[in-house]
Amino acid sequence: MNFPVKIMQDGLVTRVARVAEIAAKYADTVDAEARFPREAVDAMKAERLLGIQVPRHLGGESASITEIAELCSMLGQACAASAMVFAMHHIKLSSLVEHGVDSEWHRGFMRRIAAEQLLIASATTEGGIGGNLRNSICAVEVDGDTCRLEKDATVISYGSHADAILITSRAHAQAASSDQVLTAFLKDQYTLEKTHVWNTLGMRGTCS
C-alpha cells in the first residue's frame, strides 16, 4: 500500500500502525460484545492522533483529509469499530478546522483538542425528521452567556464515551427548520438519557 510522502515523513504511519496492532488484539471481542474499543482509543490518545488535523499553529499537525483517510484504511484492516470512531471524530473536527479558525473560542477549543486529545462526537440525527439532516426540530436557547438545548437525538456516535459533542439544532426558537447551527457542548455541560435500544449491526463497537 502506498501512502503520501508527507505521512511517511511525519511518522503518522508508524504511530497508527502501533494503534492498529492494539486494536487488532481486541477487535473480535469489541465486535462480539458490541463494546467500545477503549484500548484502541486510549492508544490513539497516547499516540496524539486525535489532534493531527488541527493546524500546526494551534498545536496540531495540519494533517489533510486525504492523509486521515489513508490512516482510517490502516485502522479498518485491524478493527472496523476503531476506524469508524477515528473517522467520525475527524469528520466533526473538520468542521472546526474549516470554519473555526477566525473565532478565538474555536481556536481555543482546537488547542484543547490537540493538547488534551479530546474525543469529539456528533448528534445530528433527530426524532421526527427522518434522514433529513439539513432540518432540525429542536432549537438552541441563548440567554446572555448561557445556552440551553434539549434534543431527541435518535443516535449519538459513541455518545457516553465522548469528551464533547457537536449538536445540530435550529438557530433559535423562531428559526425555520433549515436555519441550523452546530453547537459544541463539553462533557461537563450536558447530560445524556438513553431513550431506546437498537441493533447497531455495522455500528457495533461504536456504541452509538
TrEMBL record:
<protein>
    <submittedName>
        <fullName>Acyl-CoA dehydrogenase</fullName>
    </submittedName>
</protein>
<dbReference type="InterPro" id="IPR009100">
    <property type="entry name" value="AcylCoA_DH/oxidase_NM_dom_sf"/>
</dbReference>
<dbReference type="GO" id="GO:0003995">
    <property type="term" value="F:acyl-CoA dehydrogenase activity"/>
</dbReference>
<dbReference type="InterPro" id="IPR046373">
    <property type="entry name" value="Acyl-CoA_Oxase/DH_mid-dom_sf"/>
</dbReference>
<dbReference type="InterPro" id="IPR037069">
    <property type="entry name" value="AcylCoA_DH/ox_N_sf"/>
</dbReference>
<dbReference type="Pfam" id="PF02771">
    <property type="entry name" value="Acyl-CoA_dh_N"/>
</dbReference>
<dbReference type="InterPro" id="IPR013786">
    <property type="entry name" value="AcylCoA_DH/ox_N"/>
</dbReference>
<feature type="domain" description="Acyl-CoA dehydrogenase/oxidase N-terminal">
    <location>
        <begin position="20"/>
        <end position="100"/>
    </location>
</feature>
<dbReference type="GO" id="GO:0050660">
    <property type="term" value="F:flavin adenine dinucleotide binding"/>
</dbReference>
